[in-house]
Structure formats: C-alpha cells, structure tokens
C-alpha cells in the first residue's frame, strides 16, 4: 500500500479498490512506530470520522509541519515557548486540504520557528535522515521531508522562507515546491518572516506536488497578501522539453558546490538538452549578496514577529516580580540558541544608528536581486541550479558554526527574496545520498515549472524506495 | 564587530535575558555573521528603491461588516493567567 504515490492511492480509493480508512491506519501506525527518526511531534490516534473521502484528494492523509495552527492539536513551531499550545483555529491551507480530502495524519518536527537548515534547532530534538540516520535531513521542514522520504506519510506540508522546503527535499530525496509568494494563504502559519514565508508541498513525485498545490492556492480574505492564482494548476504530462530555454546562473553553480552534487547537476543539464531544451550560462550579478540581505531581512522581521511571545496570552510563562522581569525570563527560558541569535541580529539591524546601513541596504539589495531575475527571464524560461551545495551532512557537524550553517541556503535564498516559485526534484545519489536539482521561474509560472520538473523526473528515473525500508 | 556592551543593549531592546557566559559567545557569533553580511556595503545602491514586499497590492481591505470573533473564553483558554475575564500579568513595578 505504501508503494503507491498519493495520486495513485487517491485513484484506487475512487475506484473502490482501496479503503481510505485502511490507508490512513497504515500510515498512522508507520508514523507512530518510527520514533527514532523523530519526524513527528504528534500523530493522530485514528482516522477522522467524517473521512473526507469524497473530495478530489480521496482521503489520502497529510502530514503537516508543526507551525501550522491546527484546532485542538499541539502547534508549537518546534519551540518550548509554545509548550502545550493547542490553537483555537486551523490554518486556511490545512482547512482547504482537509476539505479537498487530505485529512490530518500528524504534525511534523521542524527547526524552532523555522530557523535552521538541519532540523537540529528543535525543542523536540533533531530529526534524522532516512537515507543515513547519522545525518541531518535538512531544515527547517526536516520532519516533513523525512516523513515523506521514509514512507511515514504519503505527502506533507512545509514552509519555505529561504529554502526550508527545497533544501530538506533535496537532502531527503523527495520533491519540494516553494510557490510564488502570495499564492498560498499564510493565515494560521506561526510567522517567521512575513514577507518571505510561503507554504508548499513535499511529495514523492512531481505529479503529487501538482495535485496537492492545486488545492492549496487561492486568495484568502484572512491574508491580505494572498492573491488569486491566475490559472488551474495542471497535472504535468509532457515528457519532452522542446524549445524550453534553461539558464544556468554562474554565481550559483560554481565555487562552493560539492563535486558529487556538481557532477549530478551537469549530468541532468545534458539530459535536459537530450529532451530538447537549450541550456546556456547566464549571470545573476547580485546573487552573491542575496544571502547577506536575507540574513538581515529575515531576522529583522522575525525579531518583530516573535515579540508576541511574552508569557501573556499563550505558552510558557516564567514568573518574576514585575512585568519586564517576567518577559525577559520567559523569553530566556522559552527560546533556543538559534532563535535568540536571530532575534538579536534582527533587533540590532533595526536599531537606531544601524537601520540604514543594514536593514535599509538589505531591502535595496532585494530590489537588485529581483531585477536580476527579471532580466534573466527575458532570455530564459526557467533558471536551474543545484538545490543545496552539499548532500546531507553528519548530525552535529555545523551546530557550532552559524555562518557555515547559513551557507546551506546560498542557492535557495535568491528566489525567496524575489518571491518567485522554485522546485527541487531528486537528482540521483552521490555517495549513497540524494542531491537536488532546482528549477525556478517567474511569478505564477508554477505550471511551466511543474511541467519541466516532470519531464526531467521521468528522464532521471530516481528510485526513492530504499529510504522507505 | 559587536562588543559586550552592544550585546547587552540589544538584548535589553529585545527583552531577552542572557546568561553571563552567553554574552561573550553571542558577541563572537554575531560578529562572525555580521562580518559576512557587511559585504553589502561594497555595492553602489544610491537611488535604488527598497523592496519591503514583493506583492504589488495596496490596501487590500475587506468589507466592513460585523461578524462573530473568537469567544472570550476560547481566547483566554491558553493563557497562563486569567484575571477578571482578561489576561493576567504581574505589576509593571517601579523599575523603568
């Protein structure tokens, strides 16, 4: 049963060949049993009674990153400061998917407040990589990536702020899509950086990603930055890439990319040409500055968003004699080291005397990065890069070096700053570990992106079954 | 570079209490990250408009119609302390 993709399972359920309740129970018990992987923070006790099998997603269960609010179900964003929090409402995207027939299977582990690239910053402990349990799954949506890769969930929701869907998807050998900013409602997502956060699917293949995305997008009156999606999300079918112009930005494909990852990337470029695409080098001159701008903008927004965690309305409180003492003691006890670092960095960047030199300049760099993409898309349909510079690294390898950890995001952050969609697909194994191939397109080009990703996926022929044990 | 005094100042702005050992470590780690970030100082950016948001939407307002909100007891249920149907907090005290 677990060998079926989500789309295949939905089809069998519709045809009366598979019971949605049995499918739910199969995944539920697998998710419950693999405590060592630590991918889940909460698993449903039983299939929902209403079943939701009538919808287009057939009742195929969905794993959801901890930071999505789910009514009555623990939602802590991987943080101790939200200990015991059960929200009174459900995030729009989770609600929409449940209505479409993807009931909640469980909540997945993540880096605290989505800050991290290894899932080692969680109050629930690190998630392990199903391909090698001594290595990280990537982050921050590491639990969702690991759950799908290990066959503990047919598909999952994550969020991507600077690469938090694409990088763990690459390291775990699954598909991860960050939609255009505004395509999916952020209502009910516990915020990290509001101008960057975007929800997206983790799936075993590109078809499943298209199917799930189709039911995620759309304007939501409760998120004023959400936009209506201009067309129906199509299930991709074409196996050729004739006439497609692919650009390869030299700044994101050169130095710093591990040899095994680079070889796999070059091999897939050759495959793309065989399928009829043209492949040409190009330049994103400001991409080398994107990481710096990101690590000012995201922490600045986070320092403001996380001001709400003060021991008053929900979660942890550490008692003290006066109000200020209660705030500072609660935040000291509730936030982990990486979250404190980012709050400090963001507060510094916004503080009097430093605002113009840091936050103001970072926003100007953001404009330049977006302009670089706009001019590249005058000549190219899509841009392609490796998703992450390396394969999964050993647990603990980078925890003491924040800067080394941040460099994992070098290939994914530029698209986030520009608000454009990007997808990572499994690109074979290097030394037994998966790497990712990233495709990025202009805003709302998801159909083009999914179409090209599908054709490459067929040609690459990646086998993810070893990770499902 | 960022020194101890700056770390303590920023921690106060951020309402974070730092343990004595953490102050030096925070200064070291933030200095390393800022050292990398300061590369954006090399760029010529005069006259470049800032981007705070990529979505080109201005004032997306909903209709101004009354509708139910969260019931008070539901909103208060997760609170650490409830006093007289509101969120309870310790006294602001004399310290400023």
Structure keywords:
heterodimer; A: 469 residues; alpha/beta; Amidase signature (AS) enzymes; 2 domains; 14 helices; 35% helix; B: 96 residues; mainly alpha; Histone, subunit A; two-stranded antiparallel sheet; 3 helices; 2 strands; 4% strand
Strand count of chain B: 2
User: How would you characterize the largest beta sheet of chain B?
Assistant: 2 strands, antiparallel
CATH class of the domain at 1-42 in chain B: Mainly Alpha
Helix content of chain A: 25-40%
Q: Which radius of gyration of chain A do the C-alpha atoms yield?
A: 21 Å
Q: Could you give the order of the helices and strands of chain A?
A: HHEEHEHEHEEHEHEHHHHEHHEEH
Beta-strand content bin of chain A: 5-15%
Q: At CATH's second level, what is the architecture of the largest domain in chain A?
A: Alpha-Beta Complex
Largest interface pair: A-B, 72 and 55 residues
Order of helices and strands of chain B: HHHEE
> What is the name of the CATH class of the largest domain in chain A?
Alpha Beta
User: Which superfamily, in CATH terms, is the homologous superfamily of the largest domain in chain A?
Assistant: Amidase signature (AS) domain
Average pLDDT reading of chain A: 96
**SS class of chain A:** alpha/beta
- The helix count of chain B comes to 3
Question: What's the structural blueprint in terms of helices and strands?
Answer:
The complex is a heterodimer of chains A (469) and B (96).
Chain A: H1 6-14, H2 20-33, E1 40-43, E2 62-65, H3 92-99, E3 104-108, H4 142-149, E4 155-160, H5 166-172, E5 175-178, E6 198-203, H6 206-214, E7 245-249, H7 259-274, E8 278-282, H8 287-305, H9 323-334, H10 337-350, H11 356-379, E9 382-386, H12 402-406, H13 413-418, E10 422-430, E11 433-440, H14 446-460
Parallel strand pairs in A: 2-3, 2-4, 7-8, 7-9
Antiparallel strand pairs in A: 1-3, 4-6, 5-6, 5-10, 9-11, 10-11
Helix pairs in contact in A: 4-5, 6-14, 8-10, 8-11
Chain B: H1 4-13, H2 20-37, H3 72-76, E1 82-83, E2 86-87
Helix pairs in contact in B: 1-2
